[in-house]
Each structure stands twice: as structure tokens, then as C-alpha cells.
Design brief:
four-stranded antiparallel β-sheet; alpha/beta; 929 residues; 40% helix
Length: 929
């Protein structure tokens, strides 16, 4: 019986003992190279089953290319820096803010981050080995390595030379807990449905009595920084009277907002409101008391929600900030990096945005600015790492301009082969809308940005360790640096090249996607060995989840375009997300997350890999133990077929030329062709579907059925053996453990199946017409069996004739013997005409006797099986029956059940060790031997 877990343990020992991976690499050394770059897995936690999908793809293609003879690098990667690691280390240490981290000590914190990475990179390595992934595990790259950091410095220096690097003040998404801004690409999948209390507030129009602009917003903490209100000059607005007050708002939404007891006094275009001055809700605050609030034009104001009049706080919203620069509005930044209000905001000062909402509502109500507050369901951004709600805050950050590089990246991305094809469109869409890259983060464990700002106005961007040492105020101190991380790097001051003043590095670290984006250069020794780099660049293949279009794929493309104006990869396979069996996202909180170790122990790596391989990468994979049962059943069939081949196939050379064998040989060769074609097109799910069809449906269920009585033929044995071996080689990259085990049982050709060459199709044996005809025959056989079933005539009972009408029967006529055998009819007749099948179900006495013989033979074989007899073991058979017809079939029965003697009588003379009483239809038989 196939036990995946036991097989996998034994094969891992075998590979290790025989050093098969080393021998494979040696075999392909100095052959043509095939370059793969591993997207680094974050070394932060043990693997879940979602990690194993991509790692299975990586291993499939590397094994496939290795069997084709390509030389490869096999370098695994670990992502080591950024909030992924920092937040988990904070949890480990019981810390919950940047202040607490600094009190704990940056040196201790950085060491704890490194320790966590080292711990989980070892665990993930062990898990990947259990999955069957072959990598040069002792040569994995780590994005925290100084050499990786130095390559990023080189990239930033080049951007600086091109004039792309700048420090700018913008309103950015900000995580209050983590104390840092986030970039555009970190926001895309972070929006969640939330309920907030939305506020309708009214601001008095100056020089009027009881005239109000009606404004709506979900961010009450920003009201203290209001400087303007925006309307769409092209939309229709109304002047409405309600309860003695006059309100201005968009016409389309007036009924939804005002609800009842109101009267429309006037309709007009929004441009009529532009320039109107109003009194702000918090004009008594020192920070805003001198502001002249007015209505401005903004074409992006909508009328689907809110009031059609938008509250503008330029220090609290990215779009507001851009509008303020255009309209020359005052920009007020109300909060610090923790979310506390700064000086100048009266009673707000010192309070946090998270706790201010109710106080704002009370103040609005007290001062007659509140119209209504109500719950509102909407999508709101969260920190991708700690999951807290973000705010938008005016900050000074470092950016790389995208204007010049955008068209170059678009051109380079178009030269990439994307599968699924929509990946290319996703990249183009992302590049069309990408903003300048915000590369600075106010954190600790990450790339130290090599920027040194001097009070004289000069900014020095360091491009290498060598340059840093050259400019260092104390070179000896630089020489004693343990690593290039904070806090050690911050001890190195340089002399400003312009004024010679000692200056310090900025305290920021870099976006973690710089760490991973540089690996097509750092891992290939770009700075020190261009020959080696050119051999392996660009990568022939990469694969990751679809979300990496805007993350890793994007950052690599950006950095490679900046350094070489070339895409760093030639082909990309994207795949979707792993959900649970019910189609829900896996989360610890839901209790439906499946860890890799649990899955591999319960169902085995090959069963997991079979599921991953079959999944269409364009759709989410619903992973679970119930769905794994089907995968296990498929592998059981292949396992049993392997044992069957090992038991019966002693001859392996000259193959049979009967029609069934010619068909399976053609299927074998065309399957080789199709599988290779699908893999070259990055369609592993189509490739394994072909393999399953060949091994399970064609070879095991169809050909195995057709030849079951002919296995004594050396040519039939050779055909079955060679066909199974070919299928096994095709399957090897997908399920390496079971294929290696079966290969060791049936072949001594090579030490390992992975030292075999990839099977190339012998096209001379491919007969498409024959394969097409066989498919028709299978359909005909299915129809005949259905008619038998309808007539309640079991297939062991022979029938006289079947008439098959077909528009082109001639190619089908060579399958007559197959049809006879499969459906148990004496005669098959073909006729030209509209497709139909007419089965003659008349039963003669002679046919009925033959049916009894076949059924009795089966019952005797079952008893032999219970006795655990081998095929060659002979028996002395005794049969008790009142049926006299059995005597004339005595010799035939002896041959079929391998009996040296058969005694047929009305009753058994003695008890037999193996005995069975059988009833076939109305006739009774006793069997003993």
C-alpha cells in the first residue's frame, strides 16, 4: 500500500546518502545555463501551505530544466528586514511602540531581529527539503547581508546621478503604531470593510444669516485643519430651506441627505459657489484662526455620496495636499508621528486622533456646526503588517522620481512572457499609475539609507563601502564595523565633500522592496564579476503570487531598468491565493490556517504537490484534507500500476505492434510532446493533466484492461514497461518522491530518475488518426456498456452481435477485436451512416453457458487471491454442482485458473482448506482446493 510519508522519508535518506543532487549538478555543469531567481521567502515564521504552492512551482521547473540538461544555480533566498520581522520581534520582546524599542536598545533589538531570521530560515530550509525542493541550501542569499546592502547603495547612487532621487514633503499613509509612512505599493490589498461614524457638518456662509454649506466627512480628526471646501463646477447644486436654515449641497444627493421637510429654492451649477467665504468649525484654534476659508473648484468632487461639497485639509489627505499646492492654500499638519496633536490646537494638543472623535462631535454640537452623525460602512486602509488603521499625514520623505523611468519600464515589461497573460496587463496598468517611489521608512531593522545631509546644503549619497571608508571622519572606526545596520552604521560620520564639516547619516531605513528588488544584481556578483553576472542575467524564469506584480516584480524591474535599462526576467508565472476548502481566506483567528508541517505529516508532500500542480494558477486554490483524498487516490493508481509493471514486465526491448499497443505508444510519444510544450509555456496544470490522462486513464485503465490476458507476451511487457517508465519521467518533477521510489523498483538504468534525460518524443510513432479513432472507440464502448446496463446484461455474459453505424467506419474497423473483448460480443458489424449503436441482447443457451463459465472463473480467481497464491501456483480444484454443461469447459477452465486437475461432482467429497459457496443467477456451485 502506498504510504506517502514513509516513501518520502526513505527517498530523502536515499538522495542524501547517494548525493543525487550533487551528481545532478555535476552532470549538467558547463552545459547551457538556465537562470532562475528565487523570490525570497520572509524568514519570520514557519511555512504555511500557501508558501508551498510557489515553492512547488519553483522545484517543478528547476527539475524539468535539469532533466533537459541545463546548468543551474539553485540559490534560495531569504527576506530578512522590515516590518515583517520587526513587528514579530516586538511581540517576542513584549514591546509595542518605537519608544519602547529605543528604551530596549537598538543594538539589542537589531540582534534580536537577526536571531529571529536565522532561526526561521533554518526551519524553512528543513520544511522546504521535506517538500522535496532541491536547492543549494548552504548558499542561500539573505537580503540583510552587507553585500546586498552595498548593491542597493550603488543603485541609489546611480539614481542620484540621474537626478531622480529627492527629498520631498507629501501627505503619506502613516501607521501610528509602527511610526512610519508606507508606499503606494504597500496599500493595494490593505483596504478592509469598516464602520465609522460619518459626520455631516454645516459651516456658515459669511455675510449671510442662517446660510450654510453642508459638508460630509468620515475623518473628524481632520476638521481642526480645514482650510477650504471644494465643489465640482460642472455639477448641479441646490439651495434648500429646512427648519428656517438655508443649505447648499449637490442636487442629486439632496433628498438622501435632507430626507424630509425641506424645500428647493434654487438650482444652479457648482461654479456659482466658487469663491464664497465661510466660517470654519474650529477657527478659534491658534493654528487656524487667521485662515480665510473659501469654496474652491475641484473637478473630482462627486455626487454619489456625501453632499457634493468636500472638506479640504491639505495636511491630512494626499489629494487635498495636491489641490492645496495648485490653489496656494495654507497647509496645516496637526499631528506628530504617534497621532498626538501638536502645539497650536488648544484643547486638541496632546490628545490622540484615535480618541478624539466623540470630543469633536460634542464641540460641533455645542457650537452649532453639527447637522447629523451616522454610521457609515466603507473600505479603509490598514497597515499591511500590524493591521492597524492608517492615517494620512504630512511628512518629509525620500523619493525616487518615476517620470523618466516609467516609459522605459513599460517598454521592458512588454518584452516579458507573462503567464497568465493578464499579468502583463496588470504590470502595464501599475506602471501607468505608479507614483514616485517612497523609499524611506522611520524604522530600525532595515537597509540603512546612505544619505548624508549637511547644513551647507550638500547631500552626499554613498554608493559603496569603499566610498564610505574614504569619506569617513574616522576610517579606523569604519574598519571595526560589525555590520552595516543600525545602530552601528550611525556611528560613522563623514566629512562633507563641500565644506569639510562632520555630518551624520539620516536615521531612516529603506523600503524592504529595495532589499528584494536588487537580487538580480547582488546574488549574481554584479559589482565584482560582470562576466558571471552576464552569464546568469536576466533570469529565464521567476514565479510568485499575482500581488508581486506591484511588489517584487515591480521593484526588480525598476532597479534593473535604472541600472541596465533591461528587464531582469524573461518569463513570469503568476498564481493566486490559497484559501481553505470552503473558499475562505486562511487566518489564525478563524482557526482554518494550515501549517506546512501539519499538512506534510498528515497527507505527505507529493499529495500536496499534486494538488498545487493541478490548480489553474489564474484561480484561488481551495486547499484542505478532503480535497487531498482525490489526489491520494490518483497517486494510489500510479503506485499500483508501478507494482504491476514491476511484477509482470520482465522484457523491456522489442515492443508490440497490435493496434492497442500502437495506440498506447502513440499516446506515450504525443504525451511527451504535449507535456514539454505546456511546461515551456509555463502551464504546469495542463502538463500534469496530460500526464494523469496518460498514466491513469490510457495506460492503467484502458491499455491495462486490453492486455490483461496477454501479459505473457514479451512484446506486450516491453510496451507496458517503456510506456510506464516514460510517464514516470514526465511526472518526476511534479511528484519527485513517489516517482523516485517506483523508478528504483523497476529500473537499474540510472542511479536516480533525476539522472535520466528528459524524455523526447519519437514523432515517427505518433499517429493522430489512430488516437482519434481510439477516442471514438472508447465512446462506442461506453455506449454499448450503457445499453448492457439498461438491459441488465452484465459484461461477463456474452452477446451475439453489435451493429455500429458511423459516418466513416473504415478507420474504426481495425478495433473490432478490442470492441469484442471489451464489451463481450461475438460479432461486430460496421455500417456507414449516422452515428448509432445497436446491441443485440438475445441470449442463446450456448452464450449463457459461456457466461456462467466466465463468472465462475472470476469467483475461483477471487478464492485464489484470498489464498494468497501466485499466478504460477497450481491447484487441485473440486467443484460441486448439478449443472452438467461444465464438463465440456473443463480443459478451458483448467488453463484459466491454473489447475493441474479439476474434479466436477454433485457434492464435495471432503473438506478443503479453501472453500466457497457461490450462487450465480439461479445456479449454485461449491468450490474447494
Amino acid at each position: 500500500m502506498y504510504n506517502p510519508q514513509e516513501v518520502e522519508k526513505e527517498i530523502l535518506k536515499f538522495w542524501d546518502k547517494k548525493k543525487i543532487f550533487d551528481k545532478l549538478r555535476k552532470k549538467n555543469l558547463r552545459n547551457k545555463s538556465w537562470s532562475f531567481i528565487d523570490g525570497p521567502i520572509t524568514a519570520n515564521n514557519p511555512m504555511g501551505v500557501h508558501h508551498a504552492w510557489g515553492r512547488t512551482y519553483k522545484d517543478i521547473f528547476q527539475r524539468f530544466k535539469a532533466m533537459q540538461g541545463f546548468d543551474q544555480r539553485y540559490q534560495n533566498g531569504f527576506d530578512c528586514q522590515g516590518l515583517w520581522v520587526e513587528v514579530e520581534v516586538e511581540k517576542d520582546l513584549g514591546l509595542n511602540s518605537k519608544k519602547e524599542i529605543e528604551e530596549y536598545g537598538l543594538e539589542n533589538f537589531s540582534k534580536a531581529c537577526r536571531k529571529r531570521v536565522e532561526k526561521y530560515s533554518k526551519i524553512q530550509t528543513e520544511q522546504s527539503i521535506k517538500l522535496g525542493q532541491w536547492m543549494d541550501w548552504d548558499n542561500s542569499y539573505y537580503t540583510m547581508d552587507d553585500y546586498n546592502i552595498e548593491h542597493i547603495w550603488h543603485f541609489l547612487k546611480e539614481c542620484h546621478k540621474k537626478g531622480w532621487l529627492y527629498k520631498g514633503t507629501k501627505v503619506m499613509p502613516w501607521c501610528l503604531r509602527c511610526g512610519t509612512s508606507l508606499a503606494q505599493h504597500e496599500l493595494v490589498d490593505t483596504y478592509e470593510e469598516k464602520t465609522h461614524e460619518a459626520v455631516y457638518f454645516k459651516v456658515p456662509v459669511k455675510n449671510t444669516k442662517n446660510h450654510y454649506l453642508l459638508i460630509w466627512s468620515t475623518t473628524s480628526w481632520t476638521f481642526s485643519s480645514n482650510v477650504a471646501a471644494a465643489v465640482n463646477p460642472s455639477l448641479m447644486y441646490v439651495k434648500a430651506e429646512q427648519d428656517g436654515n438655508i443649505y447648499y449641497l449637490a442636487e442629486k444627493i439632496a433628498d438622501k441627505v435632507l430626507r424630509e421637510n425641506y424645500k428647493i429654492l434654487e438650482r444652479f451649477k457648482g461654479n456659482k459657489l466658487i469663491g464664497i467665504e465661510y466660517t470654519g468649525p474650529f477657527d478659534y484654534l491658534p493654528a487656524v484662526k487667521n485662515i480665510k476659508h473659501k469654496v474652491i473648484a475641484w473637478k473630482d468632487v462627486g455626487e454619489e455620496e456625501g453632499t457634493g461639497i468636500v472638506h479640504i485639509a491639505p495636511g491630512c489627505g494626499a489629494e487635498d495636499h495636491e489641490l492645496a499646492k495648485k490653489e496656494n492654500l495654507l497647509i496645516i499638519a496637526p499631528i506628530d508621528e504617534t497621532g498626538d496633536y501638536v502645539e497650536g490646537f488648544d484643547w486638541f494638543t496632546g490628545k490622540n486622533v484615535k480618541s478624539i472623535h466623540k470630543l469633536v462631535i460634542e464641540d460641533l454640537k455645542k457650537n452649532n456646526f453639527l447637522y447629523r452623525a451616522e454610521n457609515y460602512r466603507h473600505r479603509y486602509p490598514h497597515c499591511w503588517r500590524c493591521k492597524e488603521e492608517l492615517v494620512f499625514r504630512l511628512v518629509s520623505e525620500w523619493f525616487i522620481s518615476s517620470d523618466e523611468i516609467r516609459p522605459l519600464m513599460k517598454k521592458n515589461a512588454k518584452e516579458v512572457f507573462w503567464h497568465p497573460e493578464h499579468g502583463g496587463k496588470l504590470m502595464q496598468d501599475w506602471l501607468d499609475n505608479m507614483q514616485d517611489w517612497n523609499i524611506s521608512r522611520r524604522r530600525y531593522w532595515g537597509l540603512p539609507l546612505p544619505f548624508y545631509e549637511c547644513s551647507c546644503g550638500h547631500t552626499e549619497v554613498i554608493g559603496s563601502r569603499e566610498q564610505l571608508r574614504k569619506l569617513a571622519a574616522d576610517p579606523k572606526r569604519f574598519d571595526s564595523l560589525p555590520e552595516l545596520h543600525k545602530p552601528w552604521i550611525d556611528e560613522i560620520k563623514i566629512k562633507c565633500p563641500k565644506c569639510k564639516k562632520e555630518i551624520s547619516r539620516i536615521t531612516d531605513v529603506g523600503d524592504c522592496w529595495l532589499d528584494a528588488g536588487i537580487v538580480p544584481f547582488s546574488t549574481l556578483n554584479y559589482l565584482q564579476d560582470k562576466t558571471y553576472w552576464k552569464k546568469w542575467f536576466p533570469a529565464d524564469f521567476i514565479t510568485e503570487m499575482r500581488e508581486q506584480v506591484r511588489l517584487w516584480f515591480y521593484s526588480m524591474l525598476f532597479m534593473s531598468t535604472a541600472l541596465q535599462n533591461q528587464s531582469p526576467y524573461k518569463s513570469v508565472l503568476l498564481y493566486e491565493k490559497v484559501y481553505d476548502e470552503k473558499g475562505r481566506p486562511m487566518h489564525k483567528s478563524l482557526g482554518n490556517a494550515i501549517w506546512f508541517d501539519d499538512a506534510v505529516e498528515k497527507i505527505g508532500a507529493d499529495v500536496m504537490r499534486w494538488q498545487y500542480s493541478f490548480q489553474n494558477p489564474s484561480t484561488n486554490l481551495n486547499f484542505g484534507y478532503n480535497s487531498a483524498k482525490e489526489a491520494k487516490r490518483d497517486l494510489d493508481v500510479i503506485w499500483n500500476l508501478g507494482n504491476y509493471v514491476q511484477l509482470y514486465c520482465k522484457h523491456k526491448k522489442e515492443e508490440a505492434d497490435d493496434v492497442a499497443s500502437k495506440w498506447i505508444i502513440s499516446r506515450r510519444e504525443s504525451t511527451k510532446e504535449h507535456v514539454e510544450d505546456y511546461l515551456e509555456k509555463l502551464q504546469p496544470n495542463q502538463a500534469i493533466a496530460e500526464i494523469k490522462q496518460f498514466l491513469i486513464e490510457d495506460l492503467s485503465r484502458t491499455y491495462g484492461q486490453l492486455i490483461r490476458d496477454e501479459l505473457d507476451s514479451p512484446k506486450i511487457q516491453a510496451t507496458l514497461y517503456n510506456s510506464f517508465l516514460a510517464g514516470l519521467k514526465l511526472l518526476a518533477p511534479f511528484t519527485p518522491f513517489v516517482t523516485e521510489n517506483l523508478y528504483q523498483e523497476i529500473s537499474k538504468n540510472k542511479e536516480s530518475i533525476f539522472l535520466e534525460d528528459w524524455p523526447k518524443p519519437e514523432k515517427k510513432h505518433i499517429d493522430e488518426e489512430l488516437e482519434k479513432s481510439m477516442e471514438e472507440i472508447k465512446g462506442i464502448i461506453k455506449e454499448i456498456l450503457a445499453q448492457r446496463d439498461k438491459s441488465q446484461m452484465g459484461v461477463r455474459w456474452p452477446l451475439p452481435n453489435v451493429l455500429i453505424t458511423n459516418e466513416n467506419p473504415r478507420p474504426l474497423e481495425e478495433f473490432i477485436e478490442i470492441i469484442k473483448k471489451q464489451v463481450n460480443v461475438k460479432q461486430v458489424t460496421f455500417k456507414t451512416g449516422k452515428d448509432s449503436v445497436d446491441l443485440d441482447t438475445k441470449m442463446t443457451e450456448e452464450l449463457e453457458e459461456e457466461g456462467y463459465l466466465r463468472e465462475l472463473t472470476r469467483r475461483i480467481q477471487e478464492l485464489r487471491k484470498k489464498a494468497k497464491l501466485k499466478k504460477e501456483d497450481k491447484i487441485k480444484l473440486h467443484i460441486a454442482t448439478k449443472e452438467s454443461f461444465l464438463e465440456k469447459f473443463k480443459e478451458e477452465l483448467k488453463e484459466k485458473v491454473n489447475a493441474e486437475a479439476i474434479n466436477i461432482d454433485s457434492k464435495l467429497e471432503k473438506k478443503h482448506k479453501y472453500y466457497s459457496k457461490e450462487k450465480i443467477k439461479e445456479k449454485e456451485f461449491e468450490i474447494g482446493f
